[in-house]
Amino acid sequence: MSGRHSKHDLETTPDDKLLRKLEAKWEDSPTRVLRWHKGLDVRGLDCNSAPGWDGDKDDGGALVAAHAEELSELQERLFADGRSGGSRSVLLVLQGLDTSGKGGIVRHVVGLVDPQGVQHRAFGVPTAEEASHGYLWRIRNALPRPGYIGVFDRSHYEQVLVVRVEGLEPEETWRAHYDEINAFEAEVAAAGTTIVKVALIVSKDEQKARLTERLERPDKYWKYNPGDLTTRARFGDYLDAYQELFEKTSTDVAPWHVVPADKKWYSRLAVTELLLGALRSLDLGWPPADFDVEEQQRLLAET
Ligand code: AMP
Ligand code: MG
Predict the structure, then answer these.
(1) Which domains does the chain have, with CATH numbers?
(2) Does pLDDT of 57 surpass 70?
(3) What per-residue confidence (pLDDT) applies to 16?
(4) Whose CA is nearest to atom 6 of ligand 1?
(5) What is the pLDDT of residues 236-254, one digit of tens each?
(6) Which of 7, 96, 112, 166 has a beta carbon 3.0–4.6 Å from 200's, enabling a disulfide?
């Protein structure tokens, strides 16, 4: 299963002993540690913590680097499976308030695999066309095709987050979305998509520090949006909305994972491990040749 036999970059491949040592710094499987469970209240979460991880920042970075090759090989197997008629795909759903680090996850974690195999989509305020359809329309259109890793930067969950907090729909309308979303995700999972839902939870103080930085650095102005302050003013309401969303939409086929996001190195490590766990669980081999290998070798030799 591990991909430590590719011809290139053998020198940069850490030996198995180091890899095992780093993996052992997880006290339990990250998927289990981070999975939302009854009784977990996001409003009391220590956003600066590193749950389940018994190492420091350097260890975390080292494990991400050490797992990059396996992640990349498993993505290639998934892609090959899709090319050979397989129906499987993976969907990483990233939710989090402004500055929670969703973009960094896409660059640093998803960036570890071949971009050809990734279908990335960021969801903003619905366009006029999107708004003329039901809220799942644009989501369905962006679902990963077989063989792909889909990445949603924000998602259908905005329909029970910003829509709720800003009162964009009446309560009975947005409340009905929990069941609709569960039914939708069950359908997506049944069609072969492994859904990995991640909520990056940044603290209010850390958000202030990150927004302050955006206003102090010309190279960060582009990330700043005056509207972020409107959202920030409702920080507590958003956490309430997150809490209810976890309670209503963390299902067996599509559980939520709650990731403290004040330490960027930790959230990147955590999402790397969640994505790796999902790919490992597919247990994919390489598709067999659909041609006669020996015959092709003979024909090639004759050329
Ligand atoms: P950003 O991720 O910083 O580019 O911001 C995207 C913005 O789009 C956020 O303020 C979201 O709250 C907003 N947004 C995303 N989906 C919806 C939706 N369904 N309805 C209203 N606003 C949305
Ligand atoms: Mg923003």
Answers:
(1) 31-283 (3.40.50.300)
(2) yes
(3) 87
(4) 124
(5) 999 999 999 999 999 999 9
(6) 96
